Amino acid sequence: MGRRGELAVFRETFARDPEEADFPYLFHVRGNGGVGKSTLVRQWESTAREQASVVTAYVDDEVHDAIEAMEAVSAGLGRQGHPLKRFDKQLTTYRQRRHQAESAASAPQSAPGEPGAAVPSPSSTVVAQMGLAGLGALVPGAALFTGAVDSQQVALGADRVRAMLNTRLRSHDDVQLVMNPLTGLAPVFLDDLADVAERCERVVLFFDVYERTGPVLDTWLRAIAFGDEYGSLPVNVQIVLAGQLRLDTRVWGDHLGQVTEVTLEVFSEEEARTLLSTHGVTDEPSVELVLRLSGRLPLLVDMLARSDPGGGAAMGDPSETAVERFLKWEPDPERREAALACALPLQTDEDIYRAVVPESAAGSYAWLRGLAFVSPQAGRCRYHDVVRAAMLRLQRTRSPARWQQAHTRLADVFRQRRLAVEADLGTDPEELWKEAVWREHLLNETYHRLCANPRTALPDALRQSAYAIGLDVATLRRWAQILGGAGLDTDAAALVSWGERLEAAAEQEQPGAVVLTLLLNASELDAAGRALAYTVRAEEHRHVGDAGRSLADCEAAVALTPDAARPHAGLGETFRVLGRYEEAVASCTRAVEIDPGYALAFGSRGDAYRNLGRHDEAFADFARAIEIDLRYAWAFASRARVHEALERHEDALADYDRALEIDPLYEWAIGSRAQLFERMGSYGEALADYDRAVEIDPQYAWAYGSRARVHEALERHEDALADYDRAVEIDPQYAWAVGGRARLKKDMGRLREAVADYSRAVEILPDYAWAFQGRAQAYVALGRHDEALADFTRALDLRPGYGWALGSRGELYEKLGRHEDAAADFTRAVEVDPSSDWALSARARVYLLLGRHEDALADCARTVEIDPQDGWNRMLYGVVLRAAGETTWAQARFEDALRLFTAAAAGTGDAAVEAHQGLLLLHCALLDHDRAAAVCEALISLGPGRDLIRETVEDLSLLLALSPEAGPGIEPVTRRLRETLRHR
Question: Which pairs with CB-CB distance under 8 Å and at least 24 residues apart come from 843-846?
Fold first, then answer.
């Protein structure tokens, strides 16, 4: 029934070997609207499926980017029993990782131009400049807004996105997957496609309506068809493109010679007569009239043939309009009106049909689906573009009032559908935009409102564009197409222009920045729309760590709409990220006053309260946020942190568990729960959580580093070292893991390696005070005292109140005999933490060496007051009392220490080992040499670690300095311990 030649061209390929050099593996079917491209493609698909072991996939303009196209191919092949499983899994991972990145709260960064502000990489700046310049070439007049976008800032945004993703995702592969999803998805897609091609004789991929999808699929399709960027296309995979336009020579130019072009023209007279014959139209007058009316355009030939109810007898002269030709042979006026009415929606289902047609025609949906120009599509039906365009023009010009009323009625129908979804999901716009069904209803509602009244509906449509770009680029493209399509259907130049500009913006490196700048410069946008654009741009800034710009945009949004909740909530969240918690509370309070159901504002204020130590108020806010949204995982996990602060560990675990029930892949909650288990000493549970984290993401450097810390606590040093190595292998810039490995190597006695790792850590982070003090301790162990003092001093320059560095430098001064300097450092440490019995004890020792007995006694008395159950404090108190001549009181303190140490030594674990260490020093202080020797052997038999043995030797040396008379007992046990250390 026509197109025999074209059918034969495709059918013959199945008799050929795909390995042949001139095998046609890429077809391009081209022709004007209505010429029969889609019909031919469907016939080709049927021909392919008739062959043994051939599978196909069909993609049309329902896809808006290459990722959706690959997903559609996978779904199509899956329905034939050949799913692309690895691709589907990788696609799921991509969407999960993108969700994780989007939900991450960014740490504050310096504002551009301030000291320490980030500088964009040269590559990012070049890409940004190229992207903005390309936009100017794509859209006439685009230079008006490209000049308003600073390419340095766009590039800086790209770098900050990468930095934020590195912080949130930790895995380089995941960062690349989110930043460049095609690079991560297309190779897996091709690998899976190769597996299908190996199992099947042929795989054929059809891409219909390519004049619409080509602009977003061209580069990807050319790459998989001819390039090796993503891998190679199996030889037995054929690709069929079908569209109205020639292939873009800028993309396909070097490969057009390898494309088999099939150009469709109108039917020949023979083909038209054959088709008419299949429909029973054989009388010559009818045939001649159809040929004249249709111009042999295949769509019209088929349609007119199907529409002739009584052969040639009913045919008369055509109407002057194309629409009259389409409906000429339908005698029922109500059905004719129904056909016209159903051209208004973009797609029609039975419910829409019943809503727009006269009641008397309500039962004729099956008739509508059978019309020649109507194509079934996933339970709905869609008019051919040629027919629909003509019908729309007719109705718009025939009665503008009825046109407006009909579109308003359809907009209201889709509004009711949208509200029905909101009844189940709530009214939070950010959550609703994530719901595909809701978006589809809003999209259709917006299209019809634009058609009914372009001028009044445009501001709201532009406002919704800000939400669209906040979701993803594919949604923005769909939204842009709706604006442009409404413009064409209503002959509204402003809508057409906006559609073109938004589609062009979607192709840029940083589409969000371009779109939001477009909106903020739009005269059509009302105050509410501008406020939303500022708010969304503020979120973009905040997510990439630019809190300064985020703050400016939030303040602008609040100024425009002081009675809207979202701008206040955004301002509060920005204050929270900046650490300005009181201001965060004030802004979030205003947001919940305006909207008492704003869960995110309650959550943000709750975390601000937590940071302020106002725990009761934090609990109340998190409870309210959870009451509003029972699946608010972040609120559960954040409330767990409040429980942790109050040492309510079981309650904290319950909240972490609930967060993970809601979102089993919530890595932050898994990691936080693991850290809590670690602090509780539940190392098995902590390891299980860290294992789960690296199972979810084998490239999760943070989880490896944290698991290493647990292995350290369990003295599994080799396991810990392996995890640190893996963390640093994944992320060589991970300073915390490098520093942790340095500390472990120091503890293992691998001091030079430790120094190298500490040096690498401070190279990565030059202000890493902890690493400077760690390297200083390694230098002390190596006897490199000058370098150690320099590092301690550097750590204290960076953190003047760093108590651990003060105490450690004080101990080195004490060791070097610089007792006044040591006393000064210990005094500063006490000022930092007056309740530190360790710093007070250290200062008491130095005071004793300086002969300042009264000061030493005062410090010792304070240590016993702080911790009466600490045997070490009691023992030092005894030593100082004896040196001061208070022998009776000294004996009493020694007896107290003996009682405490003896009780602890009877137990098990680390506490028993440390108690034996205390008993050894105590018997040396009491000059009981035989007992000291026996306790030393008991201590060694418990298998203490090298660190504890070294620490005991150092403590014995200090005791000798404080009590020279104890030398005869100290010297033999010191030799025994050093001998043990050499053999370990």
Answer: 843/810, 844/876, 844/880, 845/814, 845/876, 845/958, 845/962, 846/810, 846/814, 846/819, 846/822
